[in-house]
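ingest -> validate -> predict -> emit
validate: passed (alphabet ok, no gaps, 919 aa)
predict: started
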Amino acid sequence: MSVNRIIQSGMEINSETNKEKNPVRESYALTTEEIEEILSVNPIEGLSRQEVEKRLKKYGNNELRKHIPKSVWQILIDQFKSLIIGLLGAASMVAFIYGEFIEGVAILAVILINSMIGFFTELRAIRSMEALYALSQVNARVRRNGQEKEIPATGIVPGDILIIEGGDVISSDLRLIESNKLQADESTLTGESVPVGKQKESLPKETPLAERKNMLYKGTSVTRGSGVGIVTATGMETELGQISSLVQETKEEVTPLEHRLDKLGHKLIGVTLIIAVFVSISGILAGKEIFLMIETGIALAVATIPEGLPIVATIALARGMQQMARRNALINRLSSVETLGATNIICTDKTGTLTENRMTARTFLFETGEVKVESHNETAEFLFNGKKIDPIDLKVLKEALEVGMLCNNASFNNNEEKSQSGDPLEVALMEVGFMAGIDLKNLKNRYPEVREEAFDPEVKMMATFHEIDHQYKIAIKGAPEAVIEGCTNYLEKEGLKALNEEQKKQWIQKNEKLAGDGYRVLALAIRNAEEADINPYEDMVFLGLVGLADPPRSDVKNAIEQCKSAGIKLVMVTGDQQATALSIARSVNLVHDSESDVINGDRLEQISNISEDEKKKLLNTLIFARVSPKQKLNLIDLHQKEGNIVAMTGDGVNDAPALKKADIGIAMGQRGTQVAREASDMVLQDDSLATIVTAVEQGRIIFGNIRRFVYYLLSCNVSEVLVVGLASIVGAPLPILPLQILFLNLVTDIFPALALGVGHGEKNVLKRPPRNPEESIMERRHWIGVMVYGFFITASVLGSLALALNVIGMMRIRAVTISFLTLALSQLWHVFNMRGWRSNLFFNEITKNKYVWGALLLCVLLILAAIYIPGLSDILKVANPGFIGWTISIGLSLVTLVAGQLIKIIGSRFPHLVTKFDI
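emit:
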């Protein structure tokens, strides 16, 4: 069973409706006051805890579907729905028909044991995937008891007051009571691909769904602006819930890895059945018993059909995803696990990934001089031109601090809990204002906000309108080049003065110097207006620049070195200025002085008709600055057309298209928007580049483990076919009997193979280049290796049989026991040949795998039980081989191990030889 199917079938869907119907109908046609009255809520205070508990009982959780774990009985029943069970059942029927009741019962026992192994391994994988599913939960920002807090979206109830910002995925149906330049993507609900502008005014009752501009609906996403809404419907009572109730089936996704395994399995099944028929007919023509050869053919088919492939692949993927989750990487799409191992380009943002995303305001630059901020935990010293000052006494600094706090969407409470949320840059502006002695509550009371012009990536500015004495004060912040261009005056001690073009150029140069020193630079401005319905970005009064520092993360340098040694090119793609980007890139050793090319995003605007030289330059560049979301798409497309596998990080709603287009979209879990997280293949819970490197490493290990398992399993299976096939062709006694084949299939195939599938991988997996994404699990060189190892095992087994029969003169039952033991032990020791040829002979990924040692111990005990437990030995038709028999079996079983290790030792000196057929 595939992993994806395990996830889906492991969680049956119960579309249970809420306990009570929607309390508000046609809310778009009601005024906000009417809705507040119906839902008994004060939008300033929100609901109380007691009221929320009441409404949860009344309306139920805010969820469309309840996921119920797949029952143990269903998992058990599924084990009997496979080709291998059918073949074993046929073998059992043949045994009963020919009067071989003991063998018939024994085969039924094999069916039971095989099913139990599948049952327990699948049960564990399903429960692991359910645990990972539970890690993924959507949160919402609500106002309750007069305070804003984040809660799980399932806990939202009708009447809740939700705070909405650009990038949020809406988790319930809302009636807007505030809307600041709000736009929403409602394509999932209405099919309309263009974002819809929102308002708060009521609409006529006949307004169709697609035109209800005062509503936000569950499952849609906010593309721009901010707002506040009252929850009018939750769960199955939402518009999306009504549609969801009509959906009965979920399409199963098949990952490329699963598809390749399935294709490989089907090919092998066809070949195996042909070989089984050939062996059976050859044996019958050679004079052997018809029943014996039919049973042998069926046993060979059962032993060589790789039924274990999907189970081990499932366990390997599930374990790998668990390992990634433990290391803060949550995988959204199963195909990503395989793709990660082939990733060779990582396009990463700067803020929060390469840096700590912990902004602090360090310097203010004004026309009259510079103010340095030296922070000490919760306090700070302000030094104006080197002298300590009270920041409130310096008019232009006080004005700049107030603008930074007013033109701000961060939540900042300097209470005992020290709660803060929002953009780190805005939190830093709030924090420096607080340390300067400005009380945020008093400031907002003096300058009540009446309108917000949300940040626009095209304009690169944000503004808030504040009423004072029937006029409006406009607070503005944004990119220095954009703000300076729109200013006509600047503020100094004597008041306002005209800002000429020469001064603008000087300020741009000052901005570049600050950016070159590694600061994130913002410009602050104000404007006074008679009315609120104007363009705020004209005739502004320039205040100055603020430089904010975001130090590099401590683990970034090591992660970048790992990327370089792994053959992965790391490309910084940021919206910051060139100088800032270059400063950070140098500080983390992404580039050195000799590699200081930085390309502006506008060079990525038109790449369809660029020259080969320009294309080559873009492909080799490691730093891109001032990049827009559209330009990110062009950069990804450029690399993908060159055959690269591209991972792209992102956090904002505008990053969603790039995250979808990239081969691996990576969203930030701490600062990322819900839209970005849902568009991504992987979510970083710690926003760290080192976590991406760890995930890539795990992706390579998973693919390597699956290849190693397949390689091992096929070489063992080939040896069984060759042993029986060659003996049948030459008319020799069968070296291994049907039930012995089935016994070894359970013992030497399943347990060591499972152990290989969950190994920790090679130590230096990140010191090799990424594999080709088109590379098959089993390439030509691997098939050659399978045949080489199969030949050594076959030679050992046939040699032991010939030695026992013809040289020592043993009875046939003891001779067959010796060949049985030689085959069993050869396959067990062969597991050590699965190490990479680059690894150490004694300390490698196989010898360090505790599961391998556990599997070997278990298998040896089972083999001893088969020989020395009377009832079992009679069924398997084996006898005590004695000291000489054990000596022959152990001695010849080591041939394959010794040959394999010699191959690897030679390969370490002559790599071009071993890479032609080894792992």
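The domain at 329-355+553-687 is CATH 3.40.50.1000 (Rossmann fold).
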